[in-house]
Amino acid sequence: xxxxRGLAHDEICSLLSVFPxxxxxxxxxxxRHKLSFYAPLETDVPKLTGEMEVRLKQAEISANLIWSVDxxxxxxxxxxxxxxxxxxxxxxxxxxQQGFSRENTVFAGDSGNDLDVLNSGIQxxxxxxxxxxxxxxxADGTGCLYIAKGGYLGMNGNYSxxxxxxxxxxxxxxxxxxxxxxxx
Length: 184
Description:
7 helices, globular
């Protein structure tokens, strides 16, 4: 990957080994184009990622640092990806490939790894169970964002309920179908 200057996964990991807050995730959570770490929830994320960005830049590595939280395990998650690899690029590629218009595309997310799309011009839904930091960062964006509140068809707006709520916000024609399905 050009963003990583041909460096192997282990070489980038070694470069970041100076950060004691980071603990490498299990091998099955790694891949050729993603380096994943655990970090304590109390980590000063802006400070850590800022220092990591400096170190990576000094090594001429272009990367996206994506913070999210595993609420169930009460641990922070930090993914390092090549700068050219993110969800927004993947979704816009699929939209072009499949001929989907922006008007007929709706994205839903709940964590930091979704922010690039949530803050884009793509119609997006942030589900109600998203963590506070993701809600703050998504609301600061200039994208087409709907934040699920709950109450739609008696649902709470979390997880798939939030996706359905947001889908009907952007595609009202889906509402009649969902209401019909709800009554059967």
